[in-house]
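Reply to dn_fold:

You asked what the input looked like. This is it:
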Amino acid sequence: MVPVFGDLAELLELPKEGGLLIQDISPGSSAETAGLRGARRFVIVGNAEVGIGGDLIMALDGNKVDKTDALTASLSKKRGR
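and this is what came back:
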């Protein structure tokens, strides 16, 4: 996943508030089972290659997701229930 916000989000024609842009989904993973999609093509932004056309995760359980580790922590808490 790649965090995208502000100007980068607007450049990629995503909501300015941004979120985490999924780059790749592992075959057979729970993400694939849930129907999440990874990048369909790649573009160069500055000096970085960014996958676009995949899903954008903006929030989880109503809480804004702004870092990959925030998503991981939130999902870990759910598994512990």
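The chain has three helices and seven strands.
Hope that clears it up.
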